Amino acid sequence: xxxxxxxxxxxxxxxxxxxLKSQGHDVTxxxxxxxxxxxxxxxGQCPWEDDLSxxxxxxxxxxVSLEVMSLQQEYxxxxxxxxxxxxxxxxxxxxxxxxxxxxxxxxxxERLDPNYEKVAxxxxxxxxERDGVxxxxxxxxxxxxxxxxxxxxxxxxxxxxxxPIGHLTKKQVxxxxxxxxxxxxxxKDSQGxxxxxxxxxxxxxxxxxxTNSGDLVEFETGKKVGTHNGFWYYTIGQRQGLGLAGxxxxxxxxxxxxxxxxxxxxxxxxxxLRDSFDVESVHWFSGIMPxxxxxxxxxxxxxHAYPCALQADKGNDNEDMLRVRxxxxxxxxxxxxFAVFYHxxxxxxxxxxxxxxxx
Length: 359
What we know:
By secondary structure, the chain is an alpha/beta fold. It has 3 domains: 2-117, HUPs (Rossmann fold), CATH 3.40.50; 211-270, Adenine nucleotide alpha hydrolases-like domains (SH3 type barrels, Roll), CATH 2.30.30.280; 273-353, Beta Barrel (Elongation Factor Tu (Ef-tu), domain 3), CATH 2.40.30. Helices cover 26% and strands 27% of the residues. It has 8 helices and 17 strands. The strands form 3 sheets. The chain has a 6-stranded antiparallel beta barrel.
């Protein structure tokens, strides 16, 4: 097949490219340039210099053509601006999910020559077709599985998607990188949010939102126990970075109107336990809510998923919502974050956790 391979300079996408090349496909590598120049000047060194250097070396070794495509304005308008708006509203954004939906399998596909049959990436996920419907299947490496981040893709996007390393573990991918003797075979994995690279999220927030001193307030007593530089630096369930003695302290709530961050040392007390939440903007790969009761949910990226019960509901604005009930309590349910649903190894879709005014 004629395949466009999105490469980042990391080992995963490089192994994906090498595998497809070795299988005889007609492959072209594409590197997406997403940073605006004013962001770079304010945050520091160009984040793509090292990445692109690795990409060029890998492509030269594999004798694969490379194209650099600029999606800088699209990325700013749809990913960076969304992230800033969500944080300002007190919610926890997930730019990686929208990056996949809107950029890698959105604007990139729109601008790509239609002669390319597939778009391949180095994601740890698999595409499965059942009765004409495309689903995602978990990768065997539960820690690296990235179906959570791909859960908002539509049917047209999934049909064009290919994940050459989705059936492998990270260890196997590293071994293949050594077998192919790739120049980045020992390069460390990137961490954190997709568009930040080596930059800290707190530095990104400080550049766009600045600082605004507010109170750290104890949940049980209502007493001020410290100060902070802005509620946008905190998320529900956060433990690190509060800078208070006598802990551990946890963030249990944020008040965006008063700029107060509500914290507690009795994080697991009954008055803070949560075992249900609402999900809005729900996207099912099949187009309808699954009939099965055997469903689990991830409320953050990682290996852990809760068994759950789902109930279709209408919100105050009469929009379709989903009520999710867990068998156990979880104090880290963060509004704005994604809930992604599974039936066994199959990812069914997901939606956005709605703000609960009672918490």
